[in-house]
Amino acid sequence: MEKRDPLEAILATGMMVAFLALVGVVMLSVTTRFFLPFIVFSWTEETSRFLFIWVVALGAPCALKRGEFVSVDFLIRRFPRKVARGLQAAFSLVTGGFFLAVFWYSLQFARLGLLQMSPTMRIPMVFAYASMVVVSFFLALYAFRQGVLVFRKRSDAR
Amino acid sequence: MMALFLFLSFVVLLLLGFPVAFSLGVSSLFYLLVKGVPLSIIPQKMYSGIDSFVLLCIPAFIVAGNLMNTAGITRRIINFSNAIVGHIRGGLALANVAASMIFAGISGTALADTASIGAILIPAMKEEGYDADFSAAVTASSSTVGPIIPPSVPMIIVGTLTGLSVTRLFLAGAIPGVILGFSLMAITYYLSVKRNYPKEERLSLRAVFRTFLDASWALGMVVLILAGILGGIFTPTEASVVAVVYALLVGILVYRELRPSNIPRIVIESVRMTTSVMVLVGLARLFAWIITTERIPQLVAQGILSISTNPFVVILLINAILLFVGCFMETVAALVIFVPVLLPVAMKIGMDPIHFAVMVVLNLVIGLTTPPVGVCLFVAANIARISLGDLVKANIPFLLVLLAVLFLVSYCPPLSLTLPGLLR
């Protein structure tokens, strides 16, 4: 049933690479502090924060696809199945709409980053802010996809 | 008025089963639209909520824990605990609690603890003649030490919310966590004697030493994390990353149970799960911003302080609110909403914020073992193949112990404040 999803594979791989790079950067700052105390890297903290924000941006859409966002479901489990499924479809669409709006405003937010420079590395903040554009776009995409899937399943059942 | 609308829409969405993160986002969106606040505030607040050097230790601790778990460390920790306490009446049950305490020094969540220790010990306990509901109750309730003994995911969240030092918060949880563990051992022992549960054979000193050696690399990770952070050698973030590298090295080179081909899958699954928590934290920053502009914390403070200004009563009220919330809400979500709201009240009656933090986390962790929403109960009942109702009943004595420890921690600040006070 579960088809291979190349988009998810790309996002998840990107997330893993960013995470491993983050591990590498933090390890570099720890080891140099211990063994080469005369070398001080000032860029490691900022870099790891940038990488972390990208880890989240690339990973969250995959988490949405896998249904890993926590919810309180003790009430909905008592609902009739049809109602629960209708709610689920409606919620997916609301989530999609929400992140579509966030996407639009993230573009503005990222544009602010064109002129702003990061405090230590002096690179344009747009490289970090763009993560919000990416995460909201793909969250919206996967939310809509989920909504469509739920709808389709219902029509199949009839 | 608008604030009430914000809360109502949030609670309704939440109870209808909408994910917590999106309930926060969508109810905030309603508010912003009605108030006419420019929506560009959403990505801005979300970004600033996630952009934190401290938060990034959450995925790293989870990855390290899962790598170690795959490398067979849980089994070794259990064997070692069993070698030490197994010969006492109710040995396996006591070993369950002891293993939870050791495991707590590696993992930062209670759920990881229930799932990994429960998967091994619940079937083993049933086989030895322990009642299934008792086995599940011991597992679920003892896993609450996980987020109290450092490292602790909830404490990291509190640190990012309040700006308190995560190192100090970790230190603050150490003594209460150990007290919690030993109290649970006491009730376990009492019940085991009463019900005449079995004990294990006493091992020779040499055999005990052998299990210690076998577990030593796992125990080394506990020492690395705790001594590293608490001794001021690493920041919590650095410690979490060092733990990932340590887990990789031990898993591949020493225990040789971690196959390199499995590593990408473990990393992806563990990190992916935490990214959903980060989106929650980001959107909670937006929600919290609205709460602050609406001056909700002041209103709540006024409300509570109008009932009483007696610190004893106020602390009791805060505990009651948090226990109630903990029954329904997932820990991180409850923290991001209630810490900013309740902290001013606690400060007004002269509570130390660090003491407050330990109390809050303990309250919410207890909520993991209470119905209707107690994830540790769900997992334990599932492993033991018993109904939730039976488990809830069997868990009552343990719950009472947890509440007694909560009472102690609430009204005895030195338990939380002595260790952080030593740090200068």
What's this model, at a glance?
Chain A is mainly α. Chain A is 73% helix and 0% strand. Chain A has four helices and no strands.
Would you mind describing this structure in some detail?
Chain A has 158 residues and is mostly helical. Chain A is 73% helix and 0% strand. Chain A has four helices and no strands. In chain A, helix 1 packs antiparallel against helix 2, helix 2 packs parallel to helix 4 and helix 3 packs antiparallel against helix 4. The model of chain A has no long low-confidence stretch (mean pLDDT 89). Chain B is an all-alpha fold and 424 residues long. Chain B has one domain. In chain B, 78% of the residues lie in helices and 0% in strands. Chain B has 21 helices and no strands. The longest helix of chain B has 31 residues. The radius of gyration of chain B is 22 Å and the shape is globular. The termini of chain B are far apart. The relative contact order of chain B is 0.15. The chains are: A mainly alpha (158), B mainly alpha (424). Chains A and B meet through helix 1, helix 2, helix 3 and helix 4 of A and helix 2, helix 3, helix 4, helix 12 and helix 13 of B. Chain B: Keywords: Cell inner membrane, Cell membrane, Membrane, Transmembrane, Transmembrane helix. Chain B: It is a multi-pass membrane protein. Chain B: This is TRAP transporter large permease. Chain B: Its main location: membrane. Chain B: It comes from Candidatus Caldatribacterium californiense.
- Quote the distance from N terminus to C terminus of chain B: 45 Å
Number of strands of chain A: 0
Oligomer state of the chains in this structure = heterodimer
**Ranges of chain B with pLDDT <50 over ≥5 residues?**
none
Helices and strands of chain A: which structural class? mainly alpha
Instruction: Name the poorly predicted regions of chain A.
Output: none
Give Rg of chain A in angstroms.
20 Å
Order of helices and strands of chain B: HHHHHHHHHHHHHHHHHHHHH
The run of helices and strands of chain A is HHHH
Number of strands of chain B: 0
- What is the CA-based Rg of chain B, rounded? 22 Å
Distance between the termini of chain A: 19 Å
Overall mean pLDDT of chain B stands at 92
Major sheet size, sense and barrel closure of chain B:
none
> Helical stretch count of chain B?
21
Number of helices of chain A: 4
What fraction of residues of chain A sit in β-strands? under 5%
The most extensive interface between chains reads:
A-B, 54 and 56 residues
Give the helix level of chain B as a range of percent.
Answer: over 70%
